[in-house]
Amino acid sequence: MRNACFMDIDVRGPRFGATVTTVVLAVVLITGSAWLLAWQTLAFALGAAGGVGRSPYGWLFRKAVRPRLGPPSEFESPEPPRFAQAVGLVFAGVGLVGFTLGPSWLGLAATAAALAAAFLNAAFGYCLGCEMYLLVRRVTVRTE
Predict the structure, then answer these.
(1) How many CA atoms lie within 13 A of 53 on its CB side?
(2) How far apart are CA 114 and CA 5, in angstroms?
(3) Measured between alpha carbons, how far is 127 from 84 in angstroms, rounded to an integer?
(4) 112: in domain
């Protein structure tokens, strides 16, 4: 565990958000609800723009869940989860296009991909978008 600085975030927050996202995206796949996917797209957009703490699920975690938990034992940098929100935004946006304009298989495929990534984080603590961020950083730092 590294020392938490002012900008680091409680690792439980993004995982909570991934759990809620998993449920939302599963319901989207079951119902085909473009409106619910539009909500999730907005949640991703807010998380990508302002960080996971500014997303609706981050707010819910901070106000309703975290006060009921003990103090965090682990912290992480906010940049990888924020990048993961941006990746989620892309997939949810493509899914929304597929569900609203067609083809519907595009909506299903993009939503399923976002669901798979959210489930990995929720169930196993493996943030695929965060790992992508770290890989991009390694590649870009070496080329500079």
Answers:
(1) 11
(2) 30
(3) 8
(4) yes
In a domain, 31, yes or no: yes
Question: What's the total number of domains in the chain?
Answer: 1
Within 10 angstroms of residue 115's Cβ, the number of other Cβ atoms is 21
Residue 57 lies in a domain: yes
Give the residue numbers spanning the domain of 29. Answer: 9-143
Tokens of 1: 């565990």
List pLDDT tens digits, range 20-79.
Answer: 999 999 999 999 999 999 999 999 999 999 999 999 999 999 999 999 999 999 999 999
Q: What burial letters (b/e) apply to 10-49, b meaning 16+ CB within 10 Å? A: bbbbbbbbbbbbbebbeebbeeeebebbbebbebbbbbbe
75 Rama sector, left if φ>0, alpha if ψ -120 to 50, beta otherwise: beta
Q: What is the pLDDT of residues 81-112, one digit of tens each?
A: 999 999 999 999 999 999 999 999 999 999 99
In a domain, 2, yes or no: no
